[in-house]
Predict the structure.
Amino acid sequence: MCGIFALTHHREAAHMAFLGLFALQHRGQESAGLSTLHKGQITVHRDVGLVADIFSPDILSRLPGTAALGHVRYSTAGGDARANIQPLAARVNGQHVALAHNGNLVNAPELREDLERRGAIFQGTADTEIILHLLAQAPGADMGAKLKHISGLLEGAFTLVLMTQTHLYACVDALGYRPLSLAKFNHEPQSFLGDAPECWVVASETCSFELVNARFERDILPGELIEIELATGKCSTHVLPQVRSLAQSEPRRCVFEHIYFARPDSYLWGQSTFLFRETLGEKLAAQAPVDADLVIPIPDSGVPMAMGYARASKLPYAVGLIRNHYVGRTFIEPTQTIRNFRLRLKLSPLRHVIEGKRLVVVDDSIVRGTTSRRIVELLREAGAKEVHMRIGSPPVKFPCFYGIDTPKRRELLAQQMSLSEMREELQVDSLAYLSIDTLHQMAPQKQRTSEGGSGLCDSCFSGCYSDNFAQRRLREEPNALVGG
């Protein structure tokens, strides 16, 4: 997952973008970048590391401008090379541009091969650079027209924000896999440009709006292109041609955003992430009750689910594991060695809470299983009498080709083992998951399709993909298991 934050018409654009990226740090911890527009010139600073470490006051002072575009990244496609750090900046048909992208293009290999055959030279390996090359070759009088054109060439998940010398563009693919929202600043006259009636913010999650004192307007819809004129602040909307070609398809909003990735205080697609997770816990308690003494969460994403489970089951809720918040997410670390090392730094058990207790341990998901197994070991070492694991999502059995780092079926515990085998592997007394039908029932009524579908993408649980490219990628996996 990656995070995008952009704003217009602010005298301290770089500083505000820094705050926005800071709020989105959970979406990517490998690298970050920030570009600003000043007097027709785009300045970019990008580096490996955390936002607070990269953007010192001295660095921010060298990023003048009244419009900014920032990005935080963890690598799914393309690896973590410095050339892949976003935003990517270039001259496209004589115009300075900066581009940020969240999601994965499932037809990236085919697009790259075709571009290289026609003479394109790539600096990095991320699929975002492919989009820049396509823009350079696309017909159209302006970047908005070019974006419309290339949207029909892109398969998979993409939320794009493009800053030029005259405009800020934001668009979401026709199936709406990844979130992108629009807000307006609450005016503080000394900070904003006096001739700009509208001062806009675009971000991957609404939690960043709170920090910069912006007012949420709405989600950018699947297949929608937002065009903001930097001279006037005028905002207009367009429909991507891709939408018409997929007119019969329902949205495919990534349910894993709600389950794990998004910050609990964000609203995704009109729904509170915290309340969504809390309700998952309630549903899980109804589906998989257990006789126990305490309900404890795996912090942090398991906390709302555990609260819901405890309330519905009428069991006491307790904090049994303390998280060190100076250690990043273990799931999005790039190697298993680092994941194992960081887990001991990240979680510490409270022996006086755990010892002699029968525990219901609630987590959002099990992917590879290595983190869950080590957590169970920590709880056993702290004296837990029983450990019953409850998971607030269905079993992750299939890779995601749309922007989540689960690339191989053979790495997924639920793909390799049955429920009883997983219980033995994790050394828990019982193990239960939320059903996939219950998960789809969680979609709000206003987000449902005309046919009653949930509009949620569940491909990592079901193996049902929306495009032939993803199906082919699945078949091409080396040493892949045949999953159910």
Notes: The two ends are 26 Å apart (CA to CA). The chain has two domains: 2-249, 274-476. Residues 2-249 form a domain with the Glutamine Phosphoribosylpyrophosphate, subunit 1, domain 1 fold (CATH 3.60.20.10). The chain has 19 helices and 23 strands.
